[in-house]
Amino acid sequence: MKNSMLFILCIMCLIGCKSNSTSDNNQSYSGDNSNVSVDWDGRYLGVLPCADCNGIKTTIDLNKDKTFSMSTVYLGKSDQTYTHNGSFEWYDNGSKIKLKSEDMDGAFIVGENQLIHLDKEGNRIDGDMGDKYVLKKLDMSTMKELTDNKWKLTRLLGRDIEIEGDKDVFLEFDASESRVSGFAGCNNFFGTFIWEGDTRIRFSQIGSTQKMCIKNMEIESDLLKALQNTDSYTINNGVLSISKARRAPFAQFQKM
């Protein structure tokens, strides 16, 4: 009888130990895992510290297929936009990513609606500027009115536009590829755009076909220059206006 009771007590102890061990193991994996718990795909924007310029305006798009696109502008040095495309992988702890492309790499902590830039060893950057290495996630839903419509040119450099011909001058956006395209009066044009939240937008790599026309060439030239100088826009009552800073609009478009 004593042997039976001793055997039962041993079994109960073993079950209790296994239960505690399982609980401890579960607790060790209960930490934050951004790969699973955070809605991380989307666009992030911020100005990172720079040793020899006014800051590095940085835009990063993270995609669900683990690809990324990144653009940077060195403020106070040049208006040139540098672009990088590649893939990224998660660190084992699921809270950091490493970006990889042919000409750059970088590491970030993925947080709730933010990316935190890390040093070359994958560690947080400390010091007085430590809190400046942050990119904030943009609410892309506010871009939809711009990109979900096609826009017909109605005014350019303060004057109403009358196109000679039966084809409207227009532009349209491809949000998935960050591309803009349209017809400028004689030639088709194309390029890229970066939406920077609220009413901020920049166009780059603007090009066109090379057909020569007798009509509408001045309109075409002025429109393409306006796009390259634009940094902001507004949409009011179905009218898209593009401009630079607080200047009068370069051009206005009607929703088609």
SSE arrangement:
Blueprint: H1 2-28, H2 34-37, E1 42-48, E2 55-62, E3 67-75, E4 81-90, E5 96-100, E6 105-111, E7 114-117, E8 134-137, H3 144-147, E9 150-156, E10 159-160, E11 170-174, E12 179-183, E13 188-195, E14 201-208, H4 217-229, E15 232-236, E16 239-243, E17 251-255
Antiparallel strand pairs: 1-2, 1-8, 2-3, 3-4, 4-5, 5-6, 6-7, 7-8, 9-10, 9-11, 9-17, 11-12, 12-13, 13-14, 15-16, 16-17
Organism: Marinigracilibium pacificum
Domain DUF306: 144-253
Protein name: META domain-containing protein
Key terms for this structure?
256 residues; Lipocalin; single chain; elongated; 9-stranded antiparallel sheet; Hsp_HslJ-like; alpha+beta; 2 domains; 17 strands; 8-stranded antiparallel barrel; 4 helices
**Span between termini:** 92 Å
DSSP E strands, number: 17
Major sheet: 9 strands, antiparallel
Query: Which structural class is indicated by helix and strand composition?
Result: alpha+beta
- Which range does the strand content fall in? 35-45%
Query: What is the level 1 CATH name of the largest domain?
Result: Mainly Beta
* Share of residues in helices: 10-25%
Determine the CATH topology of the largest domain. Answer: Lipocalin
Number of domains in the coordinates? Answer: 2
Global mean pLDDT: 86
Note the run of SSEs as H and E.
Answer: HHEEEEEEEEHEEEEEEHEEE
